Amino acid sequence: MRPTGKLLAEDARRHHRALMLQRLFSEGPVSRADLARATGLTRVTVSDLVGGLIDDGLIVELGSPAETRVGKPPTLVGIAADARHIVALDLSPDDRMIGTVQDLLGAVKARVELPREGRSGAQAVRLAVSLAAELLRATDRTVLGIGVGSPGIVDGRGVVLDAPNLSWRDVDLAGTLHREFGVPVHVANDANTAVLGEHTFGEAGDGDFLLLRIATGVGAGLVVGGVLVQGHGSAAGEIGHVIVDPGGKPCACGRVGCLETVLAVPRLRERDPAALAQVGEVLGEALAPVIGLLNLHQLVLAGPRDLLDGALRDAVDRTVRERTMAVTTEDFVVRTSPLGDDVVLAGAAVLVLSGELGVS
Amino acid sequence: MRPTGKLLAEDARRHHRALMLQRLFSEGPVSRADLARATGLTRVTVSDLVGGLIDDGLIVELGSPAETRVGKPPTLVGIAADARHIVALDLSPDDRMIGTVQDLLGAVKARVELPREGRSGAQAVRLAVSLAAELLRATDRTVLGIGVGSPGIVDGRGVVLDAPNLSWRDVDLAGTLHREFGVPVHVANDANTAVLGEHTFGEAGDGDFLLLRIATGVGAGLVVGGVLVQGHGSAAGEIGHVIVDPGGKPCACGRVGCLETVLAVPRLRERDPAALAQVGEVLGEALAPVIGLLNLHQLVLAGPRDLLDGALRDAVDRTVRERTMAVTTEDFVVRTSPLGDDVVLAGAAVLVLSGELGVS
Lengths: 360, 360
Fold this sequence. Notes:
Family (chains A, B): Belongs to the ROK (NagC/XylR) family.
Domain HTH crp-type (chains A, B): 29-59
Mean pLDDT of chain A: 89
Oligomer: homodimer
Keywords (chains A, B): Kinase, Transferase
Number of helices of chain A: 12
Low-confidence stretches of chain A: 1-8
Protein name (chains A, B): Sugar kinase
Structural class of chain A: alpha/beta
Pfam families (chains A, B): Crp, ROK
Helix content of chain A: 40-55%
Number of strands of chain A: 16
């Protein structure tokens, strides 16, 4: 036996466990025999792993389905949705921080919003800690972890490298929350988090898609080949300060005509449908090379649907088609996320499910 | 034993063989012990596989390195570069078709160019067949396969779905060449082929990069996470007919201001350095959202270096930086490919190496 044998067996066990949970999350309750067929594992291995998951309280036996009463009915097992709770935080709105307690299947059990009142820097960190504390008090279940969608650039360890809106630079948000509460913490950029939310709880399906998260600012997350693109310096998706209108308005970043000067909720609220269509045209012009280059299937606009659906969405769609080859965009779809503003909270829960249980 | 046992063993054997060849291609001659260490396979398995590869003539024993004459010297094995030849075709130039015979390490053994003289449709297919025939006559070695970089959109089976410059629609180029010559044929879009050439024989390293192939027209290939992005309809990289200058010149496609109306070798040849800088600015404006979104490390301009290096490259670099956040582009590099115009031929050989031997 090679020295790594034990390690590989542990690794394989974790992998198989995640495979089974993935199946249960995506398909709902199934029998042990179904799990064996679906995962390619032996019945013995499946029974062993199911036993472990039942012992951990993550899944439960659900009895037999009514329609199989002829012959010996199989016992179904399913996710014990309420076995663990997840605390999800969305720190991206300009005026407040929002958090939810969710069960393992994403159902919201509690919701808390704290007004930001201009806090930034260390004060904003303390506000996030208070929000998490309040949510943890709202549940009596074991908490699987805290998931956070944060504005700015976030590295793989959960350190916010740069978030101008909160005046955060190298803020170890994951470390701070973990030290405070002793549970696993997963932090990612809000737009990337939104992508996970849309992928798991939205309508993205399995194809490549680009999600624009439109809130106080605008961020993007891109899924290619089922994988979230991270970028060379963990800064993929930073599209808000790409200049799209050099003769336009000054931006908070000190330059002129950034995408955020036209595409941000406060700016959009000031506009009528004709002006929303103009924003859609600017966005379509900026994205046409991206759509052409990636031959993207879906562009998802995630944010307030009353602003995004309609004139703006239609103008993006039309402009992208006008500016690209038909073969690139014949199947192209622009749509809004059914999760609306809650897309980041949904994704923050997925961060935890994925990080702790290996499912997404 | 599960019914798939035999198949899996075959599969594993092919995989291990490819692993070893990959190592030999990238590292040069090594000992069997080195191969075992590098691949994690046992010495017995390595010796067995090496024996098979020697029998097939793909690798040879090279004796021992001079510096290890103390103790029993290990015998090195290496790729038998001349054991097989590869025929590579580049059909993307406007005025001719170019082909080479290359050995397994990419050294060019013969080169043939046939003038196109306006041929298109079936006549252009016949010209490609003639080119391949002439190259096959130029080698006395077993030919591992024919690799082709073709303009237009090419599907996974080597069918050219749409190549306006050659008036090709649904042309089964791989099938035609295979029926004619009885050797394996691999066809891909010229820009995607160029990406493979740059990745294997150029300077791209392991990071994400976007390659623009600038010839008669302009195409792009994008590597994210080590994988070439294919796109929803196999049309990724089709950036040449993205409109970048709505008030500009009419394009052959019937619209106005496509990227190809400014960024194509015939257009660039007419320009002085100041005008080349303007082209660089237009390109930088179109690509800034792409660079920001993907947080790309490298943009590689592949084509005539006398036109691309200098004013044009500098203007792209400057414009992309002006239009994106510093954090996105602080490590960003724009450079020209060291392979110049031969980047597609290099990539066409990689198509065959990858398809037939599993190495890239």
